[in-house]
Design goal:
Elements lengths: L1 E10 L2 E7 L16 H9 L8 H24 L6 H13 L4 H7 L7 E7 L4 H33 L10 H32 L4 H8 L12 E6 H6 L3 E2 L3 E2 L1 H11 L3 H6 L5
Parallel strand pairs: 1-3, 3-4
Antiparallel strand pairs: 1-2, 5-6
Helix pairs in contact: 2-3, 4-6, 5-6
GO cellular component, one term: mitochondrial inner membrane
InterPro entries: Mit_KHE1
Keywords: Membrane, Transmembrane, Transmembrane helix
């Protein structure tokens, strides 16, 4: 499996890292994800077929809970104006707006990925791009693992609010944050693994070809990274604001061209 990642400076030393996903190939719920508790039970405890390991069972359970949370969120989003569900949805949007864009980026990296296509402005050095990716991957793996443990510890404490005759918002929020940090940890560790393997590989031809503007050939071994310097992305970066980095129009044009989420990209302007 391969993924396309777009990298570019957005404001001073702040760089944007975002996965490009073509809307035509977006998928809904995986057919392998159980939709009912009975299916979940059978997937985890069934003795038929290939026996799955503990990690795969955990992932099936987490995906099941994730789909339930997504459906519940959709119900809140479609609730009539002025209702309690609608107000809870508004509160959820405010909380989600505080989630850092790097976390969203790491969550978009699947664990079964084996190749990354890196799109970056042609004026940047590909070695610098790879170094920045390695840095954020290492930093993300440390930070999100720490927050994962912290959120997991808070889950039993927030469950005591179940006795109140109101929706247990703290519990569901901490549950979401636990899941989110778990996915971000997986994505950052996978990204770090690929970067480390690529950096330890004595064959640096992909970097050298990116620097010289020469594309790889089919005779070369399949690389973990494919650097794609983009002249078009470089031109779009010219539409800047002197103080606040890229303008909203420039961000919108880049997002439309490379299939990025403009809201997530804009967060990088003020991300530390």
């Amino acid at each position: 499996m391969r993924a396309k990642v777009v990298v570019f400076p957005i404001r001073g030393r702040n760089w944007c890292f975002s996965r490009s996903i073509d809307p035509s190939i977006r998928g809904d719920q995986s057919p392998n994800t159980p939709s009912t508790f009975k299916e979940l039970y059978n997937r985890i405890f069934s003795q038929h077929g290939k026996k799955s390991d503990g990690d795969s069972k955990v992932e099936v359970a987490v995906d099941f809970v994730s789909n339930k949370m997504n459906r519940a969120w959709s119900n809140l989003e479609n609730a009539p104006q002025g209702t309690i569900k609608n107000k809870i949805h508004g509160l959820g949007l405010k909380l989600l707006s505080r989630v850092k864009p790097s976390e969203i980026f790491f969550k978009s990296i699947p664990k079964d990925i084996n190749r990354v296509d890196i799109v970056y402005p042609s004026s940047l050095n590909p070695r610098l791009v790879r170094r920045r990716l390695r840095h954020i991957a290492f930093r993300g793996s440390v930070i999100h693992k720490k927050y994962l443990y912290g959120s997991a510890i808070l889950l039993p404490l927030t469950s005591f609010f179940m006795v109140l005759p109101l929706p247990n918002i703290p519990f569901f929020w901490i549950l979401f944050r636990t899941y989110s940090h778990w996915r971000a940890t997986q994505g950052s560790e996978k990204l770090l693994q690929l970067v480390s393997e690529a950096s330890s590989n004595p064959n640096e031809s992909s970097v050298e070809k990116a620097e010289s503007g020469v594309k790889g050939t089919d005779n070369s071994p399949s690389p973990l990274w494919v650097f794609e310097p983009s002249e078009e992305l470089q031109k779009l970066l010219h539409n800047k604001e002197a103080v606040d980095g890229l303008s909203e129009s420039a961000i919108s044009n880049i997002c439309n061209k490379f299939y990025l989420n403009s809201g997530d990209v804009a967060k990088y302007r003020h991300s530390i």
